[in-house]
Amino acid sequence: MDSLRSAELHAKAVGLIPGGVSSPVRAFVIAVGGTPRYIAEARGPYLNDVDGRSYVDLCGSFGPLILGHAHPAVVDAVREAAARGTSFGAPHEDELALAERVVASHPSVERLRFVNSGTEAVMAALRVARAWTGRDLLLKFDGCYHGHADALLVKAGSGLATFGSSSSAGVPAGTTRDTAVLPLDDEDRLGTFFEEHGESLAAAVIEGVPANYGLLPQRPRFMKLLERLCRDHGAAFVLDEVITGFRLGPGGAAAHYGLNPDLVALGKIIGGGLPVGAYGGRESCMALVSPEGPVYQAGTLSGNPIAMAAGRATVETLLETDHYADLERTTARLASRLQEAASEAGVDAAVPHMASLLWILLQEGEPPRANGQIQKASEQRFGLLHGAALRRGVYLPPSAYEVEFVSTAHDSEAMDVAVDGLTGAFQEVASHG
Ligand SMILES: *Cc1c(COP(=O)(O)O)cnc(C)c1O
């Protein structure tokens, strides 16, 4: 049964906001069923809703909260920044400090620019890439998400078609004509594409680790091949590290795979839970950005002092001690306990994980490396699991395609609650046959 007050508020919200939510997956309705929980407060690994229920949070606001909710260092930084003023429309020192931190841990980022979201970061990076190459064509991969800019709301065509169609109404055909879509993990298709279109390609963009259609880690050789083909054909190699930046480690996926992207998009963790994005890269690219160069890009609230303070506190706290080995260990342990619980309940499941990312895929067999391999039945089973987990105090991301995020606040107590709740939830799924 849905919570009383949450359901009431949601019913009211639907009259004011499409789906009652500010971003579609939060609505629960299509992906998992039920109605969203209204959150009253969140602390460490827990979310508390307006009906007085507490949940171990494995959604983590979809990525930014690597320190968990309301980390004291972040809250203090935000409070102090807010007291100094909410927006200056002028540069300030936290912005500079965060820029220094990001540049210091990303060898391929010589300079950067702050924006307000991951969407803006990728959109601006691709604008720069097009200016840098003097070309228009973009390449993206089916199974990667890069925000909701028009040029990237393109889905794969059927079969061997390279140029897809818009995945959203309201995107002009002219826009999608300039974006090619290829499957992940397919070196042959990639090679053929570059033979045919490499000379007109402005940029290829890929997620550091595809984690928006489930967790689809690519083989290192695929990532390196893409980088090399871009280089050989004079196209920009753009790495979307909005999730992986400071998640896979201080140097993100670039460091993990030994890549040297021309441009990088960041977001999520570098804002510590406030709206932030950043794009940066090679000096010859960033020198094109206004006011130094001809690529226009601006933002009233870009480099906002509260957001910069939250991002700075998050990144500094994260880098003070090496949390990454612990995070990876905690996540691997959670994955193996969930795998075991699922198999004891008799539910087919794979629980792939990487760093502090984890994915619960409710189907038989090896986890996929490309999109399009999730069965309809596993989506339905995930809907059941999601509801059953909620009733047992575990907040999973509300879609079979979203990954779980583990934070430094997920202590053994929270993990035990999560495993107990999900063990019961797997049994409930099994009882539905
Ligand atoms: C979340 C995300 C984005 C978009 O960021 P927003 O802040 O939601 O606009 C872009 N790329 C990737 C890989 C993401 O996960």
Topology:
Elements: H1 4-14, E1 39-43, E2 46-49, E3 54-57, H2 72-84, H3 93-105, E4 111-115, H4 118-133, E5 137-142, E6 154-155, E7 165-166, H5 173-176, E8 179-183, H6 187-197, E9 201-207, H7 220-232, E10 236-240, H8 252-257, E11 263-267, E12 277-281, H9 283-286, H10 305-320, H11 324-345, E13 353-354, E14 357-358, H12 376-391, E15 394-395, E16 404-405, H13 412-431
Parallel strand pairs: 3-15, 5-8, 5-9, 9-10, 10-11
Antiparallel strand pairs: 1-2, 2-3, 4-12, 6-7, 11-12, 13-14, 14-16
Helix pairs in contact: 2-10, 3-10, 6-7, 11-13, 12-13
This protein binds pyridoxal-5'-phosphate.
Structural class: alpha/beta
Number of strands: 16
- Which sheet architecture does the biggest sheet show? 7 strands, mixed
Q: Ligands bound here?
A: pyridoxal-5'-phosphate
Pattern of helices and strands: HEEEHHEHEEEHEHEHEHEEHHHEEHEEH
Give the proportion of residues in helices: 25-40%
CA-based shape: globular
Would you kindly provide a written description of the structure presented here, covering whatever features stand out?
The structure is a single chain. The mean pLDDT is 96. The chain is an alpha/beta fold. It contains 13 helices and 16 strands. It has helices at residues 4-14, 72-84, 93-105, 118-133, 173-176, 187-197, 220-232, 252-257, 283-286, 305-320, 324-345, 376-391, 412-431, and strands at 39-43, 46-49, 54-57, 111-115, 137-142, 154-155, 165-166, 179-183, 201-207, 236-240, 263-267, 277-281, 353-354, 357-358, 394-395, 404-405. Strands 4-12-11-10-9-5-8 form a 7-stranded mixed sheet, sandwiched between helices. A 4-stranded mixed sheet has the order 1-2-3-15. It is globular, with a radius of gyration of 21 Å. The relative contact order is 0.16. Bound molecules: pyridoxal-5'-phosphate (PLP). Residues 117-119, 122, 145-147, 207, 212, 240, 242-243, 267, 277 line the site of pyridoxal-5'-phosphate. Pyridoxal-5'-phosphate (PLP) is lined by residues 117-119, 122, 145-147, 207, 212, 240, 242-243, 267, 277.
